[in-house]
């Protein structure tokens, strides 16, 4: 499946700009995983780091779930991969875990995030509680998600380049 990635519009309102940049970055991570086999998706590029594209996709599924389902909407949405004992388990798939499952879960979390955000204004304050007790509006969540994806897409670019030389934004 070829991922279609659309550049954000240069003349847009605030919400359209935020949503289009988030969509652009979601698609960018998907592009970084295209055409790779299981071994490549599990390859860490820069020892001692064990960061992989597989782990990044699982991590972003957790991040989407956390900010949109838990913080924005106060849904009962327990972690997908992490545990109290291993808060970084999302980055470390087991041998029996499949990328197909991780990718499908990530896409499902994105779909749910879109649905939940569409029902709110940028100024709406999330119904859930962050562990710090801090409240967040949808605008802040969008900006944070863009930052989270942008940072991890930089990692993904380096990992992908080390795997097969493919680079790009």
Summarize the helix and strand pattern as letters: HHHHH
If classified by CATH, what would the architecture be? Up-down Bundle
The coarse silhouette is globular
CATH topology annotation = Four Helix Bundle (Hemerythrin (Met), subunit A)
Determine and state the CATH class: Mainly Alpha
Query: Main beta sheet: strand number and arrangement?
Result: none
Structural class: mainly alpha
Instruction: Tell me the β content.
Output: under 5%
CATH superfamily: dinb family like domain
Unreliable segments of 5+ consecutive residues: none
Mean pLDDT, as a whole number?
95
Distance between the termini: 19 Å
Secondary structure: number of strands: 0
> Which percent bin holds the helix content?
40-55%
**Domains (count):** 1
Q: Helical segment tally?
A: 5
Spatial extent as radius of gyration: 16 Å
Structure, described:
The chain is an all-alpha fold. The chain has a single domain, classed as dinb family like domain (Four Helix Bundle (Hemerythrin (Met), subunit A), Up-down Bundle). It is built from 5 helices and no strands. It has helices spanning 14-33, 38-41, 53-72, 99-118, 138-164. It starts with 13 loop residues before the first helix and ends in a 5-residue tail after the last helix. The mean pLDDT is 95.
